[in-house]
């Protein structure tokens, strides 16, 4: 009886040890604030309030991306955004980045409505730059995948405004 109990105990220890090692070895994708791969190398802030604080502290513009997970237009823009090296580099180095799947309490971030995708810029003085618009007159702050060059120009404009206005 003692022999079988000891053998059973050793077997359980060996099985649990192997299981623990297998769990440790399992590779898991890191959870990021990229929310679906807008750019995993980008440092994302968690909240609008944190974004405002970081923008002021770092003297960098805040780029706010409103999107929804089940929106086909958002998914298409996300893919183009993530694949563009120039956008990724600027986002990593020159902007405070926030992507939201809900609206903020700041109504200045939805001057022409609450649609997605919508990208807006806030300068380090905490002014929402409603003057940096996309190319559509019915949705001023939306971008489509083919608008990536226009978005890049608007990102550069947001950076220039800091140098000339602040």
From TrEMBL:
<dbReference type="InterPro" id="IPR051099">
    <property type="entry name" value="AGR/TXD"/>
</dbReference>
<dbReference type="InterPro" id="IPR036249">
    <property type="entry name" value="Thioredoxin-like_sf"/>
</dbReference>
<protein>
    <submittedName>
        <fullName>AGR3 protein</fullName>
    </submittedName>
</protein>
<dbReference type="Pfam" id="PF13899">
    <property type="entry name" value="Thioredoxin_7"/>
</dbReference>
<feature type="signal peptide">
    <location>
        <begin position="1"/>
        <end position="22"/>
    </location>
</feature>
<dbReference type="GO" id="GO:0005783">
    <property type="term" value="C:endoplasmic reticulum"/>
</dbReference>
<keyword id="KW-0732">Signal</keyword>
<dbReference type="GO" id="GO:0002162">
    <property type="term" value="F:dystroglycan binding"/>
</dbReference>
<comment type="similarity">
    <text>Belongs to the AGR family.</text>
</comment>
């Amino acid at each position: 009886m003692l022999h079988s109990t000891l053998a059973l105990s050793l077997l359980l220890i060996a099985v649990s040890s192997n299981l623990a090692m297998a769990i440790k070895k399992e590779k898991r994708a890191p959870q990021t604030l990229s929310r679906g791969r807008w750019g995993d190398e980008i440092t994302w802030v968690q909240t609008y309030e944190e974004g405002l604080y970081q923008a002021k502290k770092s003297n960098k513009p805040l780029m706010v991306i409103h999107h929804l997970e089940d929106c086909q237009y958002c998914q298409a823009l996300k893919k183009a955004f993530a694949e563009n090296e120039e956008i990724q580099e600027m986002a990593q180095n020159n902007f405070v980045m926030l992507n939201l799947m809900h609206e903020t309490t700041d109504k200045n971030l939805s001057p022409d409505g609450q649609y997605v995708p919508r990208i807006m810029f806030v300068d380090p003085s905490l002014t929402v730059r409603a003057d940096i618009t996309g190319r559509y007159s019915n949705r001023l702050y939306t971008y489509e995948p083919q608008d990536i060059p226009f978005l890049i120009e608007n990102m550069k404009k947001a950076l220039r405004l800091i140098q000339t206005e602040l």
